[in-house]
Write a structure and sequence with these properties.
The complex is a heterotrimer of chains A (about 300), B (about 260) and C (about 400). Helix content of chain A is about 80%, strand content about 0%. Chain A is mainly α. Chain A contains eleven helices and two strands; from the N terminus they run ααββααααααααα. In chain A, about 55% of the residues are buried. With about 260 residues, chain B is an alpha/beta fold. Chain C has about 400 residues and is mainly alpha-helical. Classes of the chains: A mainly alpha (about 300), B alpha/beta (about 260), C mainly alpha (about 400). Chains in contact: A-B, A-C, B-C. At the A-B interface, α7 and α8 of A face α2, α3 and α6 of B.
């Protein structure tokens, strides 16, 4: 009886140890998020002790290297926005169109082949896209526009935007395909039974039903584009440039982060610390986008679970 | 039955799902301004047959159909007939209420606007009102037309779907077990509505509920394993069927 | 369409046309996406395939004291500019390593300069007129030929493009990913087991879930900032090392492993657990002996996908300094190292044309490894897939 008890106790102890180990492991994921937040936040605070936070968000001069350096990130945010906008302009129609074809027109067999094939695009390392953008696409764009007498930069926002768009296609198409497929068939039948054509059914009934999911996918794509680094480091410019001309060179938040941290400046110089201020802005924006995106998807799921159509 | 005017004449209708022969040479005449109930055990082909009448089976790529379905003298499977226009004239109400995730107003107005039956504006408003009235739901929804149709109760949703179907001004309304997902009170309302609607439309309904068929149908067709076993006036089918199988089914010996 | 039948609808012609257009639009989108993929792969193959071969020149080398003093004396001065400086520089070492060579002469195939290689491959090249003449003469005497490029696979990085290879980056990748997996695998699986088998549905587990979701969506470069601030500045771990790179990637890979491991655990039916409990096993025993073994193939699949993901990552590694110039393979995780994508990034930024084909070739190697890993994951999933 005594042995039985002690064994029992031992088993409980072991059980507890394992349980605590598991909790510890799970906690690391939280520590990482907060680690990122705080490591960026603290350095960013250091930066804002040295330089004006208001000028950071509203100023247009970014001159880190020189004496009396200026840190106005507006042109950097603008460049990031422009390149992201180009990427989404490429990825959204193509990604959504592909998703509609796969979910509404393709046979299940074709879909099983096409979907993974598209996802290959998401598996290609971004450094490879960067190389493609810098070596193939950018010169091609320069050549095309030179042919019609327009001058384009070899570091044009267009080149990195387009290639980034290609990279984002599978993020948009995969999730959109999932939500479109999840739209209950009864809605399609209901529309077709009213004498609607297939395209009308898709455009007027299916897509609006799947809209929260499609928006969610797009937000995810935007978040990917904002945070994408290698393509822009390799193909976009370094010069903060406040311009609407997508054929000019522009720079992005991520490019300036990389530039600030691969230089030789002392770690606590404002030039280096500016990377963390930019990183903080990037972190907050992508986090908000992601949270909104997840909420939308949840809503979509709840809607079609509850009404059990 | 000379007093009945034939609306739909089905001639030697065969249907295959892949290799499976699901309907075996059906011949039947369905009458104008009557409610015809299609009954039979599950898998008997009654729903499949119903979907043949508005070419909804065309949506399943492995289906093959032979034979004729003649509506007002025109075979809807003839080459020159567009299946989309067939579905416009032959409306359908489904087992599960399936309002679109749009407002109540848009649910009804969507198809008529697309078909060009009405233009946006007062004509459209009027059609929506009229359709909702015909479906007996106007009083319940007239103040919430802008709210989503999916927010209504199941029975209301089904009547909204009926309104949506009526708005296209069809000749025939097909109903595929329209009350099987509803509570008894909603069912009663729908049944009353069907009796009202048959004055203007020809109604074909599939039901698994024999009491319902007995209550509302003028004609009843009994299907079994892809065959039309018996088709007659409802009273006759229920009181004095000629076929042994029909009798067995009616009396609950299988089902 | 025949207008005589009662089902004729005049609006339909236009609507069917629009419907068709819409379908063509969706097909076009898909074709364009796949075309991008095709063009892109083709572009890499075209740019990278020439790196399979490397140009060599047949030359007489004198091994003597003068050559030891300066490699410039080892060959006929006329050919000096046509030969790889890196190869010439090795001659004194070769003599020292093998004294029997002293005061001999030998005719060997020596690695050519990158510009000669570009010339031989018919790319743009920059060779002085005098050298070009010499080169053409050599060509006529069949003293120029292309051989399989073993250097690319057996050497590390080099400032002379013809002598650079991916070996050190490959070793660096293996070391970095080893660190990554050693850290991420146990933590990731343990987190998944905790969330799926032990935690109760409460605010804590929900918080954890949201966290892991967000972690997956954080831009990778921010993990680099974390690595820089915490591992290097706070903990003082060596910059550019495989250890820091691996730890940084581990945190990035964690959410992928957690999510896929959870899916694998969830696919084990409850009946297995109930059977275990019915035998009087504790929760830990049930999970350890019954659930985990069944979920293992799925967990492995997720890990391989996470590994492939980490293998292609560059941005955070640049931030923690893994773009250093690494000619020799690192021997420990504390040494400065580089990884394959970072090596490609460095090469892509080089001005010499010869680095472009090497970058493209490196990309092909990297993609082959990634495709193999992903195929392995698919294979594992198919092979061990159990239908419950």
């Amino acid at each position: 009886m005594a042995t039985f008890e002690s064994k029992h106790k031992y088993a409980h102890l072991q059980e507890d140890i394992i349980r605590y180990f598991l909790i510890l492991a799970a906690t690391i994921s939280i520590l990482t998020t907060f680690g990122i937040l705080f490591s960026i936040l603290f350095e960013a605070i250091e930066f804002f002790k040295l330089k004006s936070i208001i000028y950071f968000f509203t100023g247009t001069e970014w001159t880190p290297g020189v004496e009396n350096s200026q840190f106005g990130a507006l042109p950097i945010f603008a460049g990031t926005f422009m390149i992201t906008a180009i990427a989404i302009a490429v990825a959204l129609p193509i990604g959504l169109g592909s998703a509609i074809y796969m979910s509404e027109y393709a046979s299940p067999n074709a879909r099983n082949i096409l979907k993974p094939l598209l996802e290959v695009l998401a598996g290609i390392p971004t450094v490879v896209y960067g190389f493609f953008a810098a070596i193939t696409v950018a010169p091609f764009i320069v050549k095309i526009f030179a042919a019609i007498g327009v001058e384009a930069s070899f570091n044009s926002a267009l080149a990195s935007g387009v290639v980034m768009g290609i990279m984002i296609i599978p993020y948009i198409s995969s999730l959109s395909d999932d939500v479109i497929t999840a739209v209950p068939d009864s809605l399609r039948k209901g529309s077709l039974a009213l004498g609607m054509t297939k395209a009308e059914t898709i455009k007027d009934i299916v897509i609006p039903s799947a809209l929260p999911g499609i928006i969610s996918a797009t937000l995810l794509g935007i978040s990917k584009a904002l945070g994408e680094t290698m393509i822009v480091v390799m193909a976009a410019g370094l010069r903060p440039n406040l311009s609407w001309n997508i054929l000019e060179d522009m720079t992005t938040v991520t490019v300036r982060i990389v530039d600030a941290l691969t230089g030789d400046q002392a770690f606590n110089s404002p030039a280096t610390l500016s990377a963390f201020a930019l990183g903080l802005a990037l972190f907050i924006v992508t986090l908000v986008l992601n949270i909104v995106s997840v909420r939308l998807i949840q809503k979509f799921k709840e809607k079609y679970k509850m009404s059990s159509l | 039955m000379a007093k009945n005017k034939v609306k739909i004449a089905v001639k030697d209708l065969n249907l295959w799902y892949g290799d499976k022969h699901a309907l075996h040479g059906l011949d039947i005449e369905l009458y104008k301004n009557k409610i015809t109930a299609l009954i039979g055990p599950s898998g008997c082909g009654k729903s499949t047959f119903l979907r043949c009448l508005n070419r909804m089976n065309d949506l399943i790529s492995s289906t093959r159909i032979e034979g004729e379905v003649i509506i007002d003298g025109q075979n809807i499977y003839a080459k020159e007939v567009d299946e989309v226009s067939v579905r416009k004239r032959i409306g359908m109400v489904f087992q599960q209420p399936n309002p679109f995730p749009k407002s109540i107003y848009e649910n009804v107005a969507y198809a008529p606007l697309k078909h060009g039956i009405v233009k946006k504006g007062s004509d459209c408003d009027e059609l929506v009102e009229q359709s909702l009235k015909s479906a007996g739901i106007w009083n319940e929804v007239k103040d919430i037309l802008k709210e989503p149709g999916t927010g209504l109760s199941g029975g209301q949703q089904q009547r909204l779907c009926i309104a949506r179907t009526i708005a296209v001004k069809p000749d025939v309304i097909l109903m595929d077990e329209p009350t099987s997902a509803l509570d008894p009170i909603s069912t009663e309302k729908i049944e009353a509505l069907m009796l009202e609607l048959k004055k203007e439309y020809t109604i074909i309904t599939v039901t698994h509920n024999m009491q319902q068929a007995a209550r509302i149908a003028d004609m009843t067709a009994f299907f079994h394993l892809g065959d039309l076993i018996e088709y007659d006036e409802t009273e006759k089918i229920f009181i004095n069927p000629t076929q042994k199988k029909t009798e067995d089914y009616i009396t609950g010996r299988f089902g | 369409m025949n207008k005589d039948n009662i089902f004729y609808d005049p609006t339909l012609k236009k609507r069917h046309f629009k419907s068709k257009l819409f379908k063509y639009f969706t097909i076009a989108s898909l074709v364009v996406s796949l075309l991008f993929l095709g063009v892109f792969l083709l572009d890499m193959v075209i740019k990278g395939s020439s790196a399979i071969k490397q140009t060599y020149i047949q030359i007489e080398v004198s091994y003597n004291q003068e050559s030891i003093d300066s490699y410039r004396n080892a060959v006929d001065k006329r050919y000096l500019n046509l030969l790889s400086r890196a190869a010439l520089r090795e001659i004194p070492d070769q003599i020292q390593a093998n004294p029997s060579l002293m005061d001999t002469k030998a005719v060997i195939w020596m690695l050519a300069d990158d510009q000669v290689d570009m010339y031989a491959k018919e790319y743009y090249y920059k060779i002085s007129e005098k050298d070009l003449e010499t080169l053409k003469e050599l060509e006529q005497n069949a003293r120029v030929k292309q051989k399989f490029n073993t250097i690319f696979f057996t050497q590390g990085d080099s400032k002379t493009p013809e002598y650079s290879g991916i070996l050190s980056a490959f070793i660096g990748t293996i070391m970095t990913l080893t660190v990554t997996m050693v850290v991420a695998f146990p933590i990731g699986v343990a987190t998944a087991v905790y969330l799926e088998e032990f935690s109760k549905q409460n605010w804590w587990s929900e918080f954890l879930e949201i966290n892991i979701n967000n972690l997956a969506a954080i831009p990778s470069i921010l993990f680099g900032l974390l690595g820089l601030a915490v591992y290097i500045n706070l903990l003082g771990l060596p910059r550019s090392s495989a250890l820091v790179g691996g730890l940084t990637l581990a945190l990035m890979t964690l959410p992928i492993i957690v999510v896929s491991s959870r899916a694998a655990l969830r696919s084990v039916p409850a009946s297995i657990r109930q059977a275990g409990y019915a035998l009087g096993l504790t929760k830990v025993q049930v999970v350890k002996d019954h659930v985990l073994p069944l979920a293992f193939p799925g967990i492995m699949t997720g890990n391989i996908i996470g590994l492939a993901h980490a293998m292609g990552e560059t941005a955070p590694l640049i931030i923690v300094g893994m773009i250093a110039f690494i000619p020799d393979s690192p021997t420990s995780v504390m040494e400065a190292a580089t990884v394959m994508p970072a090596q490609l990034f460095t090469w892509a930024g080089m001005p010499e044309r010869a680095y472009i084909e090497r970058t493209a070739a490196g990309i092909l190697v990297l993609l082959s490894v990634l495709i193999s890993l992903n195929s392995l994951a698919v294979y594992l999933r198919k092979k061990f897939e159990v239908k419950w």
